Amino acid sequence: METSNPATLRTTTTVNAPIEKVWELWTGPEHIKQWNNMSEDWHTSKVEIDLRPGGKFLFVMGLKDGSFSFDYTGTYDEVIPHELITCTLSDGRKNTTVFSSNNPVTISETFDPDNNEPIEMQQRFCQAVLDNFKRYAERE
């Protein structure tokens, strides 16, 4: 977990699995619901993705007790299977996910922070989600 510069955050993990499996688990809505949370009290209750340049996405994320939720929405800008996904969130922030190597696969996410939330909290949240993906992918 590192901050690449004050305006951009970066998270990284290495997954011991082939790229084909990592890509499927990263982009499949039924899989995203299983790993896209920062802790056991969070969940992603709805996932809609149209994984192509210009395609839209929606993840409904929140606490399992229903006390808080939010929609994570945007548009895919670039999709190169097994290599790269870039998107623009509905509030204009950018997110880039790079998949490097084959087995193991290093996943690096670079994203613009939300200026309304503490940067350290966002960094921890995103790293926790990435770490959860690693656990999910390595046991599937």
TrEMBL record:
This is SRPBCC domain-containing protein. SUPFAM superfamilies: Bet v1-like. The lineage of its organism: Bacteria, Pseudomonadati, Bacteroidota, Sphingobacteriia, Sphingobacteriales. Residues 16-116 form the Activator of Hsp90 ATPase homologue 1/2-like C-terminal domain. InterPro entries: ASHA1/2-like_C, START-like_dom_sf. Belongs to the AHA1 family.
